[in-house]
Amino acid sequence: MEFVNKAASLSTIIFVVSSMLAVGLSLTVGRVVAPLRNARLVTFALLANFVLMPLAAMAIARLLQLDGSLGVALLLLGTAPGAPFIPLLAGIAKGDLAFSVGLTVLLMILSVAYMPLVLPLLLSGVSVDPAKIASSLLLLMLLPLGIGLAVKAGLEGIAARIEPLFSNASKFALMLLILLMFVANIQNILSLYVSRGVLASILLLVAGSIIGWFLGGPAVKTRSVMALGTAQRNIAAALVVAKQTSVTHGWP
């Protein structure tokens, strides 16, 4: 079992780093910045992801009376916006791709400062080292993202060739991580159905979709992106923070 846990930790790192590299290699700084000039839409996006979703996670956890670890996990997801696959989902939904790219990167960057500051305030009985969390997020997320953007800007041909490699690596690492975590925590996973953990996840997803849709502006293309971007939480960031967070008293 120790081997499985170590393999899961390694898979987590590979998933986080490779997904951030893939995002950076597929973008340009111009594409990231251009949609963010719509101040009203950006303000609503920040409100949805950094205020309303954490509140929704807390409300769902209390409503379903989740135990300590499940409550903390749900709140970690609630405070972790900027899933790297939002542009992929936006493309499938025929949403505003430029806005989805800018929104994703903005949420990723802000979450690095937001999560270490907010989690100690929201979680009673949880020991959080803000500096350690911030440094982990910077090292594992923003640094690979920055490297990817730099390669894309200076060596576009190389970026186009290697981006699929990192994209596939992130998908493989995520699938492997899910399998390893299932093996290592099969009893806990089975208990999710008893403890209403699955229901809590579904409710958080629905809440994010509704919040994002109503704050996404008048255009359907931006509404769909906001709904997807708010509902899909950044599992990579949540995993990084979870590795640096210790629960001492449980869910308040």
From TrEMBL:
It is a multi-pass membrane protein. GO terms for cellular component: membrane. The chain crosses the membrane at residues 12-34, 41-64, 70-90, 97-119, 131-151, 172-192, 198-216. Pfam families: SBF. Its main location: membrane. The keyword Protease does not apply. It is found in: Membrane. The keyword Transmembrane helix applies. Keywords: Membrane, Transmembrane, Transmembrane helix. It comes from the Bacteria. PANTHER family: P3 PROTEIN-RELATED (PTHR10361:SF28), SODIUM-BILE ACID COTRANSPORTER (PTHR10361). This is BASS family bile acid:Na+ symporter. It comes from Edaphobacter aggregans.
